[in-house]
């Protein structure tokens, strides 16, 4: 019998710990498939964050390094500069990257470090109880903004992809989601492009993936996907935000 689909060799056989309906598992799959298709599983090095995906080193079949909270881009920079021929990526959530790690990601992009970052934005601190994140939408209720986020108290949500795209060192910046098959296919294409640009020697590449958090949003997995489409996508528009090859 012909095999039409099988689990990517870029993933281990370890059972995922994520909540039902969480998009991390899908995003892991896309990263793993990308590494397999590019033939880099044995040479790639991933850097884990602190957050929901803190145990990503158990799931990816490549070499993995754990970083202190928010410091994944700095750790990835050291690995890439020490081993310039190895594909290096960070896998980070919005609390790790946009809050405590804001300086690290900005300066890695500004320096044009030849690394790839996969940024998972679910607009909340998923691991620690659903507190407000820098990406939480205006009016969105969290455990630390029970009446909804306000501009007066917390300012505006940060559009990380757009901010990093302004930096000269960023070569490829895109935002995607994985709520349905068409968007999943676009996400896979963006992730593969980001890795390929690194392999080609371009500068910093970055893919933001809008993700659901059914547990902390208090929604079913299906309703969470609809909420993301109806609320997050209008504020965080999907698409390729910067591509220096297209601009050139």
Q: Would you kindly provide a written description of the structure presented here, covering whatever features stand out?
A:
- By secondary structure, the protein is an alpha/beta fold.
- The protein has one domain: Rossmann fold (3-Layer(aba) Sandwich), CATH 3.40.50.
- Helix content is 38%, strand content 16%.
- The chain is built from 10 helices and 7 strands.
- A 7-stranded mixed beta sheet has the order 2-1-3-4-6-5-7, with helices on both faces.
- Helix 1 crosses helix 7 and helix 3 packs across helix 4.
- The chain is globular and about 50 Å long.
- The mean pLDDT is 96.
CATH classification, class level: Alpha Beta
Helix count equals 10
Shape: globular
The largest β sheet comes out as: 7 strands, mixed
Assembly state: single chain
Number of strands: 7
In what order do the strands lie side by side in the largest sheet? 2-1-3-4-6-5-7
Percentage of residues assigned to helices: 25-40%
User: Which fold name is given in CATH as the topology?
Assistant: Rossmann fold
Kindly name the structural category. alpha/beta
Number of domains: 1
H/E element sequence: HEEHEHHEHHEHEHHEH
């Amino acid at each position: 019998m012909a095999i039409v689909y099988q689990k990517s060799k870029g993933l281990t056989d370890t059972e995922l710990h994520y909540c039902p309906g969480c998009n991390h598992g899908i995003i892991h799959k896309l990263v793993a498939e990308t590494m397999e298709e590019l033939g880099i599983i044995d040479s790639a090095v991933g850097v884990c964050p602190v957050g929901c995906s803190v145990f990503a080193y158990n799931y990816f079949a490549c070499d993995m390094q754990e970083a202190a909270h928010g410091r994944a881009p700095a750790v990835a920079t050291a690995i890439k500069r020490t081993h310039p021929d190895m594909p290096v990526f960070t896998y980070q959530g919005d609390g790790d990257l946009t809050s405590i790690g804001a300086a690290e990601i900005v300066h890695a992009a500004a320096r044009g470090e030849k690394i790839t970052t996969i940024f998972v934005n679910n607009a909340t601190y998923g691991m620690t109880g659903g507190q407000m994140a820098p990406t939480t939408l205006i009016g969105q209720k969290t455990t630390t903004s029970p009446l909804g986020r306000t501009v007066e108290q917390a300012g505006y949500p940060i559009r990380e992809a757009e901010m990093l795209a302004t930096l000269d060192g960023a070569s490829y910046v895109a935002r995607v989601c994985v709520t349905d098959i068409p968007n999943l296919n676009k996400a896979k294409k963006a992730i593969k492009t980001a890795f390929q640009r690194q392999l080609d020697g371009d500068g910093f590449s970055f893919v933001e993936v809008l993700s659901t958090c059914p547990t902390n949003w208090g929604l079913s997995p299906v309703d969470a996907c609809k909420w993301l489409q109806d609320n997050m996508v209008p504020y965080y528009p999907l698409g390729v935000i910067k591509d220096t090859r297209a601009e050139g």
